[in-house]
Design brief:
It is built from 4 helices and 5 strands, in the order βββααβαβα. The chain has 123 residues and is an alpha+beta fold. The chain has one domain. Strands 3-2-1-5-4 form a 5-stranded mixed beta sheet, sandwiched between helices.
């Protein structure tokens, strides 16, 4: 059994778009909805992990941590639905090699909003 690999993600609105910012590695994506931003980030992570494995390097090792400001936002944010979830549970219809690559990956998602009522509505 593979050891779980944890990824911390903070989700926030930027104008009309949602942003999913990885805290462990400086990777981010956007989407029109919260779900779309998360899916786009997971797809980006999968693609990078597969390429890194093909090159024989540790997955995501070429990405530094996100800037401290994002780590601070993550620490101030509210946990989203159930805490840590399997990364592949956020992508529907994932099969084959990509599904196996994501097996050990766990995502801890947090929502950042200036209004606590908004955050509760998003759970």
């Amino acid at each position: 059994m593979q050891k779980a690999i944890g990824i911390k993600v903070v989700l926030f609105q930027d104008g009309t778009l949602w942003v999913a910012q990885c805290v462990n590695h400086d990777l981010a994506s956007q989407g029109k909805t919260l779900e779309e931003a998360q899916r786009n980030l997971i797809r980006m992570i999968v693609g990078n992990v597969i390429l890194d494995l093909q090159k024989g390097i540790k997955p995501l090792s070429q990405y530094a941590s996100a800037p401290k400001a994002f780590q601070d936002i993550f620490n101030q944010s509210l946990m989203l639905g159930g805490g840590r979830v399997k990364a592949k549970s956020l992508l529907k219809g994932l099969r084959g090699h990509a599904s196996k690559v994501l097996d050990p990956w766990m995502i801890e998602r947090r929502i950042y909003t200036k209004d606590a009522k908004d955050a509760c509505a998003l759970h």
